[in-house]
Amino acid sequence: MLVNSNNDHQPNCEFAEETVSYLYGELSEPQKAEFRTHLENCSACAGEVQNFASLQSSIRKWKAEEFDRLSTPAIEIPYHTAEKTFGSFSWFDGLWNSFSRGFVPVGALAALVVGLVLGSFFLFSSADNDYVAGTNKVPEVNKTNTVNVPVNNLKENIPSNDLQTGENDLVEKEKPRLAKSEETKSPAAQNNSTGKKINPVKASANSAANRNQTEKAVTPEVKNPKTDKNKNLPVYGNVPRLNNLPEEAEDDDLRLADLLDEIDAD
Amino acid sequence: MLKDLTDEQLVELAVSENAEAFGEIVNRWERKIFALCYGMLSREDEARDAAQETFISAFKNLSGFRGDAKVSSWLHRIAVNQCLTKKRRSKTRSETFLDEEKNEEDKYFVAPANQSPAKQFEQGEKSKRVRQALNSLPPELRQVIVMKEFEEMTFQEISDTLNIPLSTVKSRVYTALKQMRMKLERIPLEIV
Question: Shortest CA distance to A178 belongs to which of A188, A190, A170?
Fold first, then answer.
């Protein structure tokens, strides 16, 4: 039953806000009891509650008639399009977030990394070029531990019979290199090839000598500045001397001399 | 089991591993979001479109969900925006409020068969006016009434979803009911 109400005044009651809570049954039992007691003494709130209850009933009837009978829509989610890009979406989104949050630090870091890589590349490239140009820089060690030994000039200091008989493994092994101007083998390999044992200390000296000779390796375009200090050393043509390191040159003399003595002894 | 996960966990799962985990969120909220859209728009076809667009928009922006709000709040916000957008487009197409109501009434109202014609007419008129009164409310007041009556949410749930104080929710419901009552009382109904 609906009754036309002329009660338009707003209750200035402290319980006004609790009207809706009471209407929708969201008061606790003690609060509900207290509000009911208040309604008995406050006509404004009582009128509000009555009007609101009537309106609430109308709204619920309308909902029941027009909405409750409607079926829930079948929501279609485009999963298939998400699958194509979802994997990339997450990393892309992360990248975009990084970009949007701080392009400067990310860009700076990327530039730094690129600069380091390029700098390293050019640095190593220039190192090789500098050696070739004769700047006395130590070249890279050949990965295969091969040594370019100018063998032909060794004949001056090595007894020829050794060369002929091949007793000297070092020389024998170097013979093919005479033609090829290439490799030397490790002392162990030399030992195994002929059965002749080489003193490991002297073998290391041998390899060291080879290394030193490597340092003085011949390249056609390299010029060999001869100095007084080095005049006793065998001349290998255009071999750069380590003029800046006289002590090493002296060590070279000693080692080479020891090697030659050993060869003579054998 | 997806059913054991919270809404926020489902979103996280959908973003990181399995997009179809979002389907569980759809199952949980599709009816309520549809109810919200219907209460806001009062038209079934527009409500269905708005609900569909709400979930598609939410799915597309899953990675943008920061987790600082509830998933329900996020979905409601998207749904209300979709409804307001549709309302604006309806107005720009020069569809009048009365025309909408007339079409809505003719299309959808079905009175119970056991009612007398007079009763049916009365009920039809009442429903029409209730719908008119609801549509006349500002969006923020209409939303809380719809969430209370259509989604059947508690005041605390509305407060959490809209991220507004509980007292504000109660105040808005009180104000909305008063405005609706005043609009309905313009044409008094007196039954003896």
Answer: A170
User: Which residue stretches of A24-78 are H helix?
Assistant: 29-41, 43-66
Listed residue (A175, A209, A170, A212) closest to A193, CA to CA: A170
Q: How far apart are CA B103 and CA B101, in angstroms?
A: 5
> What b/e string do you get for A42-57 counting C-beta neighbours within 10 Å, with b at 16 or more?
bebbbbbbebbebbbe
Cα gap A78→B186, rounded to integer Å: 48
- Nearest chain B Cα distance for residue A185, angstroms: 58
Cross-chain CB nearest to A72 (options B30, B130, B185): B30
Q: Please judge whether B184 and A55 are an interchain contact, meaning their C-beta atoms are less than 8 angstroms apart.
A: yes
Kindly state the percentage of chain B with pLDDT values over 70: 85
Taking 60 as the threshold, does the pLDDT of residue B39 lie above it? yes
Q: ipTM for the complex?
A: 0.81
The model's pLDDT over A120-159, given as tens digits with 9 standing for 90+, comes to 888 888 766 655 444 544 445 444 444 444 444 444 444 4
d(CA B192, CA B189): 10
Contacts of A219 (CB under 8 A, 6+ apart): A132, A238
Residues of chain A found within 8 Å of residue B190, distances taken between Cβ atoms: 2-4
Token pair recorded at residue B165:
């104080």
The answer on pLDDT for A163 being more than 80 is no
> Over 70: is that where the pLDDT of A222 sits?
no
- Sort out which chain B residues have CB atoms less than 8 A from A65's CB and list them: 109-111, 123, 127
Verify whether the Cβ–Cβ distance B38 to A70 is below 8 Å. yes
